[in-house]
Amino acid sequence: MSWLNQSLHLARRTAQYATTEDFRRLFLEQIDNLYQLSLLLTADQSKAEKCFVDGLQEALDSNNIFRDWAGSWAKVVIIKNAIRVIQPRGWEPNPGLTMSRPNELADDESSTLGPLLALGDFDRFVFVMTVLETYTDHDCAVLLDCSLADVRNGRVRALELIGHSVSAHRFAIPATMSVGREN
Fold first, then answer.
1. What mean pLDDT do residues 145-167 have?
2. Tens digits of per-residue pLDDT, 37-82?
3. CA-CA distance, 33 to 75, in Å (whole number)?
4. 40 with 124: CB under 8 angstroms?
5. First vs last Cα of the chain: how many Å apart?
6. Model's pTM, two decimal places?
7. Closest by alpha carbon to 56, among 92, 22, 97, 15?
8. How far apart are CA 90 and CA 100, in angstroms?
9. Spatial CB neighbours of 27, under 8 Å, sequence gap ≥ 6
C-alpha cells in the first residue's frame, strides 16, 4: 500500500462521520431554523413541511458526511429539496420588478417576512441563499443551475423590492397618531 493510500485509509478510519443519530439530534435541535429556511425558500407551509421532512430523510440516508459538517449538510439538503419542489428559474424573460403571486403568508401585515415571501421564486431563493445563508454567488449559481449574472440580478431585484416595501411601511403613519410637538 502506498503512502497516500495508507494516509487516506487512516483518515477514513479515524474520521468522525455523522451517524443517523447525529442527524436526528441535529434536526431536533435545529428544527426551528431548518423549518424557517424551508419556509423562506418555498413561501408555502405545506411545501416547506415536505422539504423539511424530505431533507431529514435525505440527511439520515447520507453516508460519509463528517460530523463537523452535518449542520451545513442539513441546510444543503433543505435547499436542494426546495429547489426541486419550487424549480426557481432566473432566466425567465423579463421577470420585472413586481412581486410574485399573492401568498397567504406574505399577506399577513404583522409578518416582518411578508416582503421576502412575496418575492418571485428565483429572487427569493437568491436572497435567502446569498444574503441570509451567506452562500457565495458561485455556489448559489451551481445549486440553482444558472449564471453568476442571474444570481447578481436576482439579488439586486430582491433588495430593491424589499427596500421599497420596507420604506413604504416605515413611513406610513397611523391615523390615530398626531404628528408635531406636544404642548
1. 92
2. 999 999 999 999 999 999 999 988 887 888 889 999 999 999 999 9
3. 9
4. yes
5. 89
6. 0.76
7. 22
8. 13
9. 34, 56, 59, 74
Neighbouring-strand partners of residue 17: 66
The helices-and-strands tally (H runs, E runs) of the chain is 9, 0
> In this structure, are residues 20 and 63 in contact, taking their beta carbons and an 8 Å threshold?
no
Is residue 67 within 8 A of residue 16, CB to CB? The reply is: yes
Take residue 26 and report the three cell numbers written for it.
441535529
* Residue 23 Cα distances to 27, 38, 40, 73, 144, angstroms: 6, 17, 22, 10, 25
pLDDT exceeds cutoff 80 at 6: no
- DSSP 8-state secondary structure symbol assigned to residue 64: S
Q: Residue 34, SS3?
A: helix
Give the tens place of pLDDT for each residue, 74-132: 999 999 999 999 999 875 544 444 444 444 554 444 457 889 999 999 999 999 999 99
* Amino acid occupying residue 126: V
Query: C-alpha cell of 89?
Result: 428559474
Contact between 97 and 160 under an 8 Å Cβ cutoff? The reply is yes
CA 123 vs CA 40, 42, 44: distances in Å = 12, 12, 15
